[in-house]
Amino acid sequence: MVKSEQRQAIEELVYRSCLALDEKDYKTYLALCDEDFRYTISTYSPEIRREMVWLDHDRKGMETLFTNLPRHNSDHSPLTRHATVYTIDLDSSAASVVSAIQVFKTELDGGATQLFAVGRFHDTVKLNGASPKLAKRVVRLETRLLGYGYHIPF
Amino acid sequence: MAKTAAQWEAKPKFPETHYVDSRVYTDEAIFEEEKQKLFRPSWIIACHESEMAAPYDYRLFTHPTGVPLIVIRGDDSKVRAFYNICPHRGNTILYDPAGNAKRLTCIFHQWSFDSRGNCVDISRGEQGYQERFCKEDAAMREVKCEVGFGGFVWVNLADDCPSLREFIGGAMDILEPYMQQPMEVFHYHKARVRTNFKLWHDTNSEFYHDYLHYFNRITGMMQPGYFDRKYTGFPNGHATVGSMQIQYDKYDGSKERAVGWPGLARGGWYMVDVFPGMTYNLRTSVLRIDTAIPLGPNEVIIEFRGLGLKNDTPEERRQRVFDHNMIWGPFGRNLHEDLLGVHGQGRAMRRGTDSRWVLQGREENNTIHDEVGMRHYYAEWSRRMGRPAYRP
């Protein structure tokens, strides 16, 4: 059984990770992640009937990605990540956390907001430190049509 | 000094082959004509054979003219293509984008067809049609279909079309040596963009826009051999781009590709642009295929495929997927930039924006920043449309 304080801490970790990326505050995002952090975006293609991986990095890879992104041309429309923690299953020193994630994109000119993507976070959260840390995040996308795309992961 | 309205309207100071009227990207009537004169008689990539490996495997494909197709591997393993339109009441026969179906059965009245397009059952046929209409009268509409050039499944709506090899001519000579081993699709996604389909093909037909890509500037443009890459035009509007050695280790977080491609020099990169809207892009460890499906003069769906070798080890495949995603995935550095580029053209060239000319005037001995690739495309466009692209 998850204690309410634990649940609150884990939920806050998920929500803070969304806020950090919404703000493009990569330093804060990485501070929420364990040294062995691994980040993956995956989805299933009914067209080719295959599992697909669209992004896969360890912590160092994420740091490099965040360093490189400002050097590239990109869409400047901000994203807003809206997560809802569904389930938390405790192991000895980690928790498996499943959250729903909706990503909205807001046009800079006029401020119209559109749903950009839906999916789920499948997180592994380490609990043996002073504060819970993201050890693994698999962003499981339902949405596969992303227009002209985006550089910053969800 | 900025231009007046008259100066903006004036023809560019180039030969008429070196610019196009921007109405070719915006005009509804031109677009409808293009569907019939460019796409209908051309061979178009519908899918790859690895997407339909077993008998009765099928893939749905919306042809650029709008015709919905079923591509299916028959009981005899031959790949055929049919309209996904029931000959009874015009309903959709198959809905899922891929699957395996021994019988193609329309859910509306349960008319059923086999993998060769024959009608095998009409529900209560004799009671309703007596001797007036039978299964032989109710076959599916078959379209030309060939598998070739790397195991891709090509379709052609014109019954009197030339063979696929005649259509391609020598344009694939540069790539065929590297497509001798069976390949497999590991990546597929679509992008829907508010732009004209030719603007995407234009982007694939010129490298001057490498200024858009930090990755390509660092690993290519600033490296030896970049400005030696050459364009070669072929009949029917196809064009190729020669190779160089990409210096992947010049980009932070990247390194020399651990996995190559059989026969391809280290860091090699060849491209073949196939008229009117497909591109083969073999870059070191991955083959990418683009297929443009226009929805209107200012809207296009582009299908992106990434392929490796069928006999890849798990580690080789993982590396190819990683290499693909770094630049070409939906979150990759280059693809987003390219799509953003043509999205911007679509914004600026919509009907009523007073966009006027698109320049294709760079001449650099057919090398990488020469715009001869686009000029070659529009020469074929003009031939098929019966008028020049500068006066459409």
Task: Describe this protein's structure.
The complex is a heterodimer of chains A (154) and B (392). With 154 residues, chain A is α+β, with helices and mostly antiparallel strands. Helices cover 23% and strands 45% of the residues of chain A. The longest helix of chain A is centred in the first third of the chain and has 19 residues, at 4-22. The radius of gyration of chain A is 16 Å and the shape is globular. Chain B is globular, with a radius of gyration of 23 Å. The mean pLDDT of chain B is 97. Chain B has helices at 5-9, 28-39, 125-129, 164-168, 197-204, 214-221, 314-327, 333-348, 372-385; strands at residues 19-21, 44-48, 57-62, 68-73, 79-83, 98-100, 104-105, 112-113, 119-121, 142-148, 152-156, 183-193, 231-233, 239-241, 269-274, 278-283, 286-296, 299-309, 357-359. In chain B, strands 2-11-10-5-4-3-6 form a seven-stranded antiparallel beta sheet, with no helix packed on it. Chain B has nine helices and 19 strands. Chains A and B meet through β2 and α3 of A and β12, α7 and α8 of B.
